[in-house]
TrEMBL record:
It comes from Pseudofulvimonas gallinarii. It holds the Pfam family DUF7453. The keyword Signal applies. Keywords: Signal. This is Delta-60 repeat protein. Residues 1-21 form the signal peptide.
């Protein structure tokens, strides 16, 4: 998660590469440096704003709701996890506070602490919240969903839980309890990858189900509907006729309207062709198969599917590499970025994996068709992590200064360093949230931060990005 990286924002035309290592009108709680009532979205276009940091002693490092407690200090990308969001700018992410390891993980939603490890699990009795899965969900209303394993009895201590603005937490799924989507079947001990729709419907991946054969005991469900089941469901569009064998951890995506879904996993076939990405029941990318419409003659490499994403509008993104060693980003049936392409039409820099195993590390989009791709270039290794906007301009670059205290002056001796794998989210209003490490002017690691960049108004349109 701490490889050098690049992010690219572009239109549905050709864009390019990045490294691997992941709006709002939401008002965040008051802290020094941001007047009460100011929205993050009010930041000047292109300005990198610090929402939270782990720079010990700084106001941005204080965990909301825990006076006197800071985010876990130190370098690296281990303190703020991946951020997830909804079209209107609601956001959620897990992070680590500077507390004992049994109570240090927290879930933040729109700047408020809503759940903390080691505290009472209020949705049940006599149990404590356990570690929180990185994958969480949030909708426009600020309703959220997460998964955890408490310190309760092993047969029943795995949960998927929802919450809302009233502070009440409720159980969607619990190990050992009936699974509404499958009469006579009980939830197993593996409950993960939850998402939440606009109407509150939750989708999740469940494994170890009771009441079904072992080779059929893992499912993807949405509300009371089974979307896919291992050993039973046969995705269309594959080169063979194999059922699902497994679903990958954290790789379920659904749209807010509940109409579309994406899941990555393995088919019950040859290990050379079993890894697939499935959208709405049909394979769109398959290991060992040439990407349709890519112009490649070489197929997707063994274990060559690296990352997936579905936007709120239902557009899918997949990144990976082919057997010729070319890294790519593929979206809705076309190649949108690849190794060797220029980062902007007239740029002298190209997307490159010169210093890393992978060129690309991130691809996210909003419901308007706008998207962000992350990667590295063949430029100076100290500054070759970049954010490219609209496929035409560099929005931010590794080494750019960061305004820590929000005073409008770069007087904090802090600069962008590396971006985390997939640690990003783009809202419909053009506010891009991301997690990155920071360094000082001497090049020494300074810590990590959860940040935002507001895209300029002239590049955000209701039908996606356009050139000004």
């Amino acid at each position: 998660m701490n490889l050098r990286s690049v992010l690219l924002l572009g239109l549905g035309t050709g864009v390019c590469c990045a490294v691997q290592a992941q709006d709002s009108d939401i008002t965040i709680p008051h802290r020094a440096g941001l007047p009460v009532g100011d929205s993050i979205a009010a930041a000047a276009p292109g300005a990198v704003q610090v929402i939270y940091s782990n720079l010990a002693g700084h106001p941005t490092a204080e965990v909301p709701g825990l006076p006197g407690v800071g985010f876990q200090p130190g370098g690296g990308n281990a303190h703020f996890d991946r951020v997830y969001g909804s079209p209107n700018g609601s956001w959620a992410l897990t992070a680590f506070a500077d507390l004992p390891w049994t109570e240090d993980e927290v879930l933040l939603v729109n700047g408020e602490l809503v759940v903390r490890e080691g505290t009472a699990a209020t949705w049940t009795s006599g149990e404590l919240v356990g570690p929180l899965d990185t994958k969480v969900g949030v909708n426009d209303a600020g309703d959220f969903v997460f998964s955890t394993v408490t310190n309760g009895p092993a047969a029943s201590n795995a949960y998927v839980v929802t919450g809302g603005s009233d502070g009440t937490l409720g159980v969607v799924a619990q190990a050992g309890s009936p699974a509404p989507a499958m009469p006579g079947v009980t939830w197993g001990p593996f409950l993960e990858s939850p998402t939440i729709a606009t109407d509150g419907t939750v989708a999740l991946v469940a494994g170890g189900l009771g009441g079904v054969p072992a080779n059929e005991n893992k499912v993807v469900v949405q509300g009371a509907t089974v979307l896919a089941q291992i050993g039973v469901t046969i995705p269309g569009g594959q080169i063979g006729n194999e059922p699902w064998q497994n679903f990958d951890f954290l790789d379920l995506w659904t749209t807010p309207d509940g109409e579309h879904y994406l899941v990555q996993g393995d088919l019950d076939g040859s290990i050379d062709t079993d890894d697939v990405v499935v959208v709405d029941g049909n394979v769109v990318v398959q290991e060992g198969v040439v990407l349709p419409g890519s112009g490649f003659s070489n197929p997707v490499n063994n274990n060559g599917i690296v990352g997936v994403h579905m936007t709120p509008g239902g557009r899918y993104f997949v990144r990976g590499n082919n057997v010729a060693g070319i890294d790519w980003v593929y979206s809705d049936g076309q190649l949108v970025a690849r190794l060797g392409w220029p980062i902007t039409p007239l740029a002298s820099e190209n997307w490159s994996d010169r210093d890393y195993a992978d060129c690309f590390f991130l691809h996210v989009g909003n419901s308007k068709g706008d998207y962000v791709i992350g990667g590295v270039t063949n430029g100076d290794s100290r500054t070759n992590g970049v954010l490219v906007l609209n496929g035409e301009r560099v929005l931010a670059r590794e080494g750019d200064p960061v305004d820590l205290d929000g005073n409008g002056v770069f007087d904090d001796d802090l600069y962008l360093d590396t971006f985390g794998n997939d640690d990003g989210y783009l809202s419909d209003s053009g506010l891009f949230y991301f997690v990155a490490t920071l360094r000082n002017g001497a090049g020494a690691s300074a810590g990590q931060a959860f940040l935002s960049i507001q895209l300029a108004d002239d590049v955000i349109f209701s039908d996606g990005f356009e050139s000004p």
